Amino acid sequence: MMLVFALFFLLPLLFVTIVSAWDYNEYEMIPAFSLRGYSDTFEGCIADLPNLCTILKTYLKTLKLCLLTWVLTLLIGFTVAYFLAFHVRSKTWQIVLTLLCTIPFWTSNVIRMIAWIPLLGRNGLVNRGLEGAGLIHQPLEWLLFSEFSVVLALVHLFTFFMVVPIFNSMIRIDRRLIEAAYDAGATGWQTLVNIIIPLAKPGIVIGSIFVITIVMGDFVTIGVMGGQQIASAGKIIEARLNALQFPAAAANAVILLGITILIISALTRVVDIRKEL
Amino acid sequence: MGEKRPRSFYLLAAFFTAYVLFLYGPMFAIYILSFQGPDGGLTFPMNGVSLVWFGKVFSGSGIVDIGAAFKRSLQLGLVVMVCTVVLSVSAGMAFRRSFRGATFLFYVAIASLIMPSIITSLGIALEFRLLDDFIIKSGVGDWTTAMGLFTSGLGAHLTWTLPFGLLIMFAIFNRFDNRLEEAARDLGATPWQTFRHVVLPIILPSVVGIGLFGFTLSWDELARSSQTIGSVNTLPLDLQGLTTTVTKPDIYALGTLTSAVSFLVIFLALVVILVLQARQRRHGSDAGKGMV
C-alpha cells in the first residue's frame, strides 16, 4: 500500500514541483533551473494593472464556480441528510434510500453530464416546455454550455459527497439531546441551529473539503458542460499539457495545489478528521 | 412508531423526492433517447423506436473503435478491483495495530483522495516521461515508453480507489469484535487460520463492497486517466472526446451500454452481499442451541 502511494502519488507530486521550475521550449523540457513556467503564467499581469490579467480572472472564475457549487451542495446535502437521519425511522428504509442516492455515484460521470443535453439544449425539454406554456418565444441560450449548466452539473454530480459525511455525523447525535431540547421548550428551528448543526459540523467540513477540492481541480465537467468555452484552473493545466509545455503545466499545478491546501487547512482548523472516522 | 409525523416530514420528504428525481431524471432521458428511431435526433420527441444506434455502436461505424476501448476498460477495471481488495484488506488489518508510519500513511491516503485529479495525473505522466528519458539515455535500443494501461494507468486508478477501500476497512474494523479473534487464538488457531475462518467470513460482505467500489470507480474514472493512459483510450475518455463531435444518438446508446455494465456490476455485488449476510444470519450463532 505504502509502495503504491509512494510510486504513484508522492513521487509524482515531487516531480511536479521540480519540473515546475524547469526551462522549456516548443517541444521539450530542459532540466535547468528557470522560473519561466511561473513567469509565463502571469504574463502581462503587471502591465495590465489595474485590470485583472487572464490568469487571475480564470482563478477568480474558478473560485466563483466553486463557491456557488459549495453553497448549493451544502444546502441540498444537509437537507437530504437531515431527512434521512431524523425523519426516516426504520433502518431498512434508511438503507434503501441511501442506496438510492448512492447508485448514481457508481455510474459514469460523463454520461451523467451528457444526460443534461437533451433536457437543456436549444430544442431540449425545458425550452420546449417553456415555449409551449407561452412563457418564452425564443429558446433560452444560457441553459446549456454556460456557467449555469456547469454549476448545475457539478451540483448534480457531487452532492453525494456532502450527503454521506453529514448523514454519518447526524446519526451519531444522541437522540436524547434533541428530546431534552424539546422538553426545555426549544422550537424546531432552535434545535436545528443550536444542537444539530454544531454536532453535524465535522460532517459538514469533510463534505466541504471533498466538494471544494473536486471542483477546484475539475476540468472535465467544466469542459463538457461549458462547451469547452469556459476557462478554469484545471483547464489551464490541461491546455498547457496538450501544448506539451510540461513545466508551465506543473507551475500551474503547484499554484492550484497551494490554493487547495490553503482552503483545506483553513477547514481542518475547525475539525480533526482522524477523530471522526 | 405510532406518533403522528410532523408537517416538516412531508416537506422534507417532498424535497428528498425532488432530489432523487433530479439525480435520476436526466439519466433516464438518455436511456430512452438511445432507443431513438433511425431518423431521430439528439433531443425529444422520439421518431419511432429502434435498436439502430446500438447496432451502430457494435458495428463500430461512425465512431472510434469502441469495442476495443470497452475491453480495455473492462480489463483495467478488473485488475484495479483485485488490487484494491487485496491491498485494502491487508492495509486494514495492519492499521488495527499501530505501526511506524501509520499516521503518515493515513494522511497520505486522505491526501491522495482529495488531491485534484489533474495534479496527480500530471505528476504520474511526468514521472513516466522522465523515466523514459532516463532509459533512452542509458542506451536501451528501441525503448519506446513505460507508460501504459497496466503501469501508469493502473497506478493512477489505484490512487483513487485505495483510499475508498481503506476508509471502508476502517469502518468495518471500528465495529469488529476483537474477542472473536482472541477466542480463535485461545482455541489454538494459527494467525492464517484465524484470518481465513474467523475474520474473513465476517468482513466478506464489506469486502465485496470494496470490490464494487474498486471496479466502478475505475470503470468511470476519467480525470486521472487523461494524461497517464499512454496512446490508447479507456471508454470514459472516448466518450468525453465524442461529446464535442458526435451529433447522433449513438453516443446515448453508448452511454446506455456503459451504464448497463455499471448497473450489472452493482446489482451482482448487492446480490452477493445480501446472500452472504443471509448466510451469516443462518449460521451466525449457535448459542443456546446446546451441543451440536
UniProtKB/TrEMBL annotation, chain B:
Lineage top rank: taxon: Bacteria
InterPro entries linked: Bact_Polyamine_Transport, MetI-like, MetI-like_sf
Keyword tags: Cell membrane, Membrane, Transmembrane, Transmembrane helix, Transport
Bilayer disposition of the protein: Multi-pass membrane protein
Membrane-spanning segments: 9-33, 74-95, 104-126, 146-173, 194-215, 251-276
Main location: membrane
Keyword Cell membrane: yes
Domain ABC transmembrane type-1 intervals: 70-276
Location relative to the cell: Cell membrane
GO cellular component: plasma membrane
Keyword Transmembrane included in the entry's annotation: yes
A GO BP entry: transmembrane transport
Record-linked Pfam families: BPD_transp_1
Family to which the UniProt record says this protein belongs: Belongs to the binding-protein-dependent transport system permease family. CysTW subfamily.
Protein name: ABC transporter permease
Native organism taxonomy: Bacteria, Pseudomonadati, Pseudomonadota, Alphaproteobacteria, Hyphomicrobiales
